[in-house]
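Lecture notes, part 5. Sequence design as translation. It can be helpful to think of inverse folding as translation between two languages: the language of shapes and the language of residues. The source text, in structure tokens, appears below.
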């Protein structure tokens, strides 16, 4: 990626991060850090491990695309040959760096996916070409979001199996299930036929965006078709890679509940891991519904307050959990932005 583009991503992300940091009460932050002590380090290290799961999913997708390209019987034309750059030169430390930086930009950018995905495509393009870079990033993002729908749906079943369900809660669980099933259906359709053309076609109907979306579609129709074919190929020809990617991302969602467990243990709150999964599921669902907020400000805190107090835990514990999680997000966002400027 050109250094000018790297600088632009870095500066914009840094400005947004500084703006979000001003929203915190730093006296309260320092008190929280002192109370958590060394557990803060454990929580930060946990997320360093969880990002390995995200990186592994992306790496599987890239290598699967490479295997499909090498196994093709059709002789590629000159343009296609240029796109079929080998991914052997992609090292895991580099991919880990780009993954962390991509998530950092998504956290900091209002709307999400508006900073991290273009950044990842631009970083990967010199190594594997723009079409494979775009399709791999889209596939990785699709798999990441797809796993969220499965996580929420599994959590509905877990709640029914472990908690009493009254009529109002039954209605909430039913609506959540319908929402998750619709999301799963949408992404399964996208896996089978691709999403690149659909996303840009959707953009052509949005005010302001449609001014450049339609000319872009007309100019890059062949490239978008190739990207959609590559997306469909992973699901049709590489089912093991598809399933492995989804399971890796779903495992990452489940294991991230350990963060809540560690924080509540600091407060000597008696809670089990299944309860922490339910807390995370409800909170992440509410926060993702407020995707347009940078770092999901307000939505995540409200989700923790509702879910934790709903399990009979004190309000002060919910506030403490939300504070430590917010600090962890700010730390990894800052680190991800700094990694943009690091060459690996």
């Amino acid at each position: 990626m050109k250094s000018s583009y790297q600088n632009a991503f870095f500066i914009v992300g840094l400005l947004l991060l500084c703006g979000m940091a001003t929203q915190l009460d730093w006296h309260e932050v320092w008190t929280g850090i002192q109370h958590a002590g060394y557990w803060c380090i454990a929580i930060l290290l946990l997320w360093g491990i969880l990002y390995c799961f995200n990186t592994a999913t992306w790496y599987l997708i890239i290598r699967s695309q490479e295997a499909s390209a090498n196994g093709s019987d059709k002789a590629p034309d000159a343009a296609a040959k240029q796109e079929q750059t080998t991914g052997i030169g992609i090292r895991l430390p580099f991919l880990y760096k780009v993954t962390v930086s991509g998530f950092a930009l998504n956290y900091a950018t209002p709307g999400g996916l508006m900073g991290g995905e273009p950044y990842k495509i631009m970083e990967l393009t010199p190594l594997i070409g723009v079409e494979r870079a775009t399709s791999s990033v889209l596939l990785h993002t699709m798999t990441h979001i797809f796993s969220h729908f499965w996580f929420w749906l599994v959590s509905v079943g877990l709640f029914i199996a472990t908690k009493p369900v009254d009529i109002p809660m039954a209605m909430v669980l039913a609506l959540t299930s319908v929402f998750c099933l619709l999301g799963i259906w949408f992404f399964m359709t996208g896996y089978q036929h691709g999403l690149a053309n659909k996303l840009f076609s959707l953009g052509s109907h949005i005010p302001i965006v449609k001014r450049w979306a339609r000319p872009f579609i007309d100019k890059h129709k062949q490239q978008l078709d190739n990207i959609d074919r590559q997306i469909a190929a992973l699901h049709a020809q590489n089912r093991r890679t598809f399933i492995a990617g989804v399971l890796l991302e779903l495992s990452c969602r489940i294991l991230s509940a350990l963060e809540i467990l560690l924080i509540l243990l600091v407060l000597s709150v008696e809670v089990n891991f299944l309860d922490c999964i339910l807390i995370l599921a409800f909170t992440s669902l509410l926060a993702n519904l407020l995707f347009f907020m940078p770092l999901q400000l307000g939505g995540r805190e409200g989700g923790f307050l509702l879910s934790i107090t709903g399990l009979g835990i004190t309000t002060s514990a919910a506030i403490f959990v939300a504070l430590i999680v917010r600090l962890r997000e700010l730390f990894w966002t800052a680190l991800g932005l700094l990694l943009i400027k690091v060459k690996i």
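The translated text above is only one of many valid answers, since several sequences can fold into similar shapes. The two ends are 13 Å apart (CA to CA).
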